[in-house]
Structures are given as structure tokens and as C-alpha cells.
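Handoff note, outgoing to incoming analyst
You'll be picking up this chain. Sequence as last confirmed:
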Amino acid sequence: MSDTYDLAVVGAGIVGLAHALAAARLGKRVVVIERGGRAVGASIRNFGFVTVTGQPRGETWQRARRSRDVWAQVARDAGIAIEQEGLLLAMRRPEALAVAEAFLKTEMGEGCRLLSRIETAGKLPQSTALGALWSPHDLRVESRTAIPRLAKWLQERWGVEFRYETAALEIAPPRIHTSRGPLAAEAAIVCPGDDLVSLFPDRIAPYQITKCRLSMLRLADPGLRMPAPLMSDLGLLRYRGYGDLPEAAPLRRRLEAEQADHLRHGVHLIAVQSADGSLVVGDSHHYDGTPEPFAPAESEALILDEFRAATGMTPPPVIERWTGVYASSSERAMFVDAPSRDIRIVFVTGGNGASTTFAIGEEVVTELYGEHP
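Most recent structure output, in case you need it:
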């Protein structure tokens, strides 16, 4: 290990790893500084669902498309299994079908199609859905194994060095002060996840970031293979690529009347399947500057209720529960701040870090160095 680098990246979550990859591809010598012994935050406490379909129109959707392509390449090269591909969004209400039809008329609907009731039943035999939106654009990895495998591959293939159990105390290139002593780096990219106060709090505060706590579940193998990651009517409001369309207004009014508790807890459905057949199902959204560590049982019940309604199945037994916390903003999906010409602070605040951050990493590194990886 050396103490002199071209770039120091703070944070070994998916945002930090994406920036480390982009810089390493430019031939930069990169060190990643991580206060934990491994990544245990939002980067592994999620679905591993790299979602293109439904992302906000414009830059975020375009970043998701690029990030999906990078994920596919990295997964092949790093030996990360693609567990599922595509998206099936099952719809129970005519108002939801109208949103899907409007979505298909936009550029975001290219390659997607609307399945009939019979076609949907062929994919979800017990569902009573009126139809489903099918997209081929999305993919899913197992986050808890993919993130450490990605870090190992960066180390082995690209020579990225990792300083685990090391806190970054001061970033002032070329001087980087850490809890395990100083090191030198010509530039730094700070990717602190949901830590808003340890580094550059005065730069972060104006963005008015809060935090979001998620509740998620792993269910036992239901005895069947799901055709793709599954979503439902509620996702048409949660994901702005659909929810910002004018046709979403009638659906919103109906869901506010029929599923007010789900909306109050920020519940929508994503259900993905792992190699062992178990299902990762969620999630809920509760916002607070300091989220409570307690996950309400009502949120779990509402998640399982939506799973039952969308699939027609009795939920299998819960075999695992967890919560996750990520930085959140209602105003923007991400931000990059530049305290100086050689420092960047990067937050992904739209809950879509896994879906967009490879593209963000390329953009930030290109702007920092004037070269595209």
C-alpha cells in the first residue's frame, strides 16, 4: 500500500465504488476510505434492482439507462450474477392502465408493452390484475453479495486500494487526514451516504437534505419462479416517470381514497426473487432528519397487503427483516458540490443510487479531469 494517490474517494458504498471505477478507468491511482469494515449501509439494504423504467424523465432516466449498461458489463467482468431481468408492473385499476398507456407514448416507453389480462395471468397465475406493463430494460443483482464482489474486483482488476475501518477527518488535497494517519491525494470525491455532518457540513446544509428510512422483508420461497421483478399500482405514483404524467392524477385521487394508509407510510410494492427462491419485498418511506430506529409493524402489514393484492398469493413466511436509511431530497435526485477545484461532494438523494450512480460517477470524473472514462 502507498500513501500517495491521484484520487481519494470517501465512502465504499455504491456511489463511492462507481466513482472509483470511473477514475481507475482513466488510469488514476485511487484509494477508497471507508469508516466501516465493509459497506453495510443503504447500498446493501435494498432490492439490488437497477431500475430504468419509471425513473424521472430527462437526465435521471438517461443516467439510469447508462448505469444499467455499465452494471451489465461490470457484472460479467466481476462475476456478479444477474438474478432477474425486466419489470412486470401489474395493474388492478383502469386508472392505472391509463397511466401505462400514456407512458408507452413517451420516449421512456420504447421497447415496453402493455400485457392483456390473459397475458398477465400467464405470468402471475393467481393475480386478478387487469393487465401489466412489461419492460425489458431493468436488471437485478443481489446487493449484499454484489457490492463486496464489486469492491474486490476494483481492487484486483483496477488496483484500487481500500482503507477500511478508517475515518476521513479532513479533506484538503493533497493532504488527506484520516483516523489512521495522513495520506496524499491530488483530488478527492466525498460520497458520505447519509452522513450529513462529518465532512463539509456547511456545504451540505444549504441543500436541505433529510433522511428516509425504509422497511424491507425477505419472504420464504413461494414455490414458483417470478417472471421478473414485480411492481403494482402504487409504484405508478412513487416513480415520477409515471407519476408526473397528467394521466396519473385520476389514479392518485383513487389511491388516496382507497389506500390512504399505504400512501401515508410511503408504501409501494417491489418484489424481487433471489437465487434460492426467496423474495425480497418492500418497501415503506418515513422521512426525518434523524430517523427513529423503530420500524412500525403497520408498515410491514401494508407491504404484505399490497403483495397479496398484486399477486393473489398468500405471502410466504417472513424469514428476515431490516431497515435502511438514505439521504433524501424532494427537490432533486442528486447533487454535486465543489468546495474547491480538486474536491467534489456527491449525494444521490432520489433513492436510486444503484440505478443511476455509474453514470453519475462518469460525469463527475469527466468534469474533474477533463477526460471521459
